[in-house]
Amino acid sequence: MANEKEKTQKKETSYGAKDIYVLEGLDPVRKRPGMYIGSTGVDGLHHLIWECVDNSLDEAMGGHCKIIDIGILPQNRISVADDGRGIPVDIHSQTKKSALETVMTTLHAGAKFGGKAYQVSGGLHGVGVSVVCALSTWMRAEVCRDGGMYVQEYKKGKPQAAVKKVDKCNKLGTKVIFEADPEIFHEIKYDTKRIIGHLRQQAYLTKGIRINISNEVEEPRQTYSFYFEGGLYSYIKYLTRGRNSIHPNIFYCSGEKNDIVVEAAFRYTDEFECFEQSFANNIITMEGGTHLTGFRSAITRVFNDYVRKNNFLKNTDDNLTGEDIREGLTSVVSIKIHEPQFEGQTKGKLGNPEAKSAVEAVVADAMADFLERNPSDARVIVEKCILSHKARKAARAARDTVLRKGILDGLSLPGKLADCTSRSPEDSEIYLVEGESAGGSGKQARNRRFQAILPLRGKILNVERARLDKMLDSKEIKQLIIAMGTAVAEDFNLEKLRYHHIIIMADADSDGNHIRTLLLTLFYRHFKPIIEKGYLYIAQPPLYKIQAGKEIRYAYTEEERIKVAKEFNKPNLNIQRYKGLGEMNAEELWETTMNPQNRLLLQVTAADALEADKVFDMLMGDEVLPRKKFIQTYAKHVKNLDI
User: Fold this and answer.
1) Residue 572 burial by CB count (10 A; 0-12/13-18/19+): exposed, middle or buried?
2) Is 511 a catalytic residue?
């Protein structure tokens, strides 16, 4: 028996050559799609479009393409067409197949690894269009070149027939139509707004290219067209629309250094936030990289040289920091480079060391000239930077005060805070509640083991209109910072956050909505990593308590109230509309709003940072007209406002 058992164990744990699987062709892509497009969710789905468009943009950057047409078609199909040179169709010497089939069905095959077909390209690994082919249940490529139209179709990366000449064609270009595979993407739903935003951006980055978009799914059919001669100059005007610029002239430069083409532009507004975007070969680098570092170094050095030369700072030992200079700055830097080194296929960060010196040299020379030629612009920008410098010094002193009073020095937490006994951030949550009444109800209702309550008195400061030093004068905000344990600004440390559920719990009325908005503004402007980590939530207390005899149910929306009333089907229902959390007794508050088994929580996210930034500017900034227009537009959609 022992020998038999030994043999069985050996058989089960054997590991030899037969256990090694070799994935051929595009099989690796279908097996691990996330490695190639980042995810199989909505981001990955749209990444398929970007990969096809990038090929057309590469033709445009080489001067071979003027028009790109994108179509959102029925049956979840997408078409991308350009008037470039057309993918070659002759036989490839290595694969012995048509070059078109090779490009469409072979990983790491393309004209971007050497030679002179593409001097500049967004594609790095040569996997772009072949990945789209692999992840499409159906795909068709149409190429016009050499006087003919050539066609090939594919299913899940497999060609269905050889490349075939189907007609004469007196023009040049490539058209790709694909249908994403529902086996890979469980929800196939294209976001027109997202597509338009991305392609508008690409049109700004590629001077003289016309990008047309047509949505043939919606009725009536929607069409959009983008064409910008001004490049990044036009893009900065677009990014700062609706904001108060503090100087009339936009800084713009373009130049070449060590075979790297550099384009940059910036403008200052009267706001406190900085917005920067960087691109390499038209690929957005969300995490920045060496080109952005070079841009920052250039503007910091040139501004400091200008300040010292013109005696703007009384203390000659003082220097403006990068943060001082970037307050209120909206900037874009874009480079074209022969051999881009990105981190991963999704190209989040540029790593080329030579990009830093190229950008720094081009931008520094152009900026020094800009400041000399535009002294009034230079003066108002420098004055804003100096004001930021002084405010930052004051804020540093205020931060030190907050830290001294905080738990970092072992002192007590805010007196108003009813803390939980758990010391594990993963298990702990803190409710930010409005006023003493709701705070008292929350303290009685909570589970003391893992739920903390911090009552906030009235409406906190609107931080959209205040610098950090003013913000830290607010007693309520200081108490919140100390309770969270993260500190703020330069001292912010997410690892010291004491609660991984921060829950805003306010009344379901206009005052409650205002308090929520003020707190959301605070977190978005000064604690964005908390939002990005998914730690910020909004509690959803019920709007109605519906009682029939001894049976009680709660409704969180007007529609739910109607549904519950119908289900009771009784004439004498007792329906109570809650106007505030203080109206609930502790048991009701626990059951409806705080019990993890029953409660509804909305997780706060900010997927589109630029759009969120503009919304906060509009709703919480000084300009009345944009806010008025927003309210007029959406007022008809408001329900249950102080019923």
Assistant:
1) exposed
2) yes
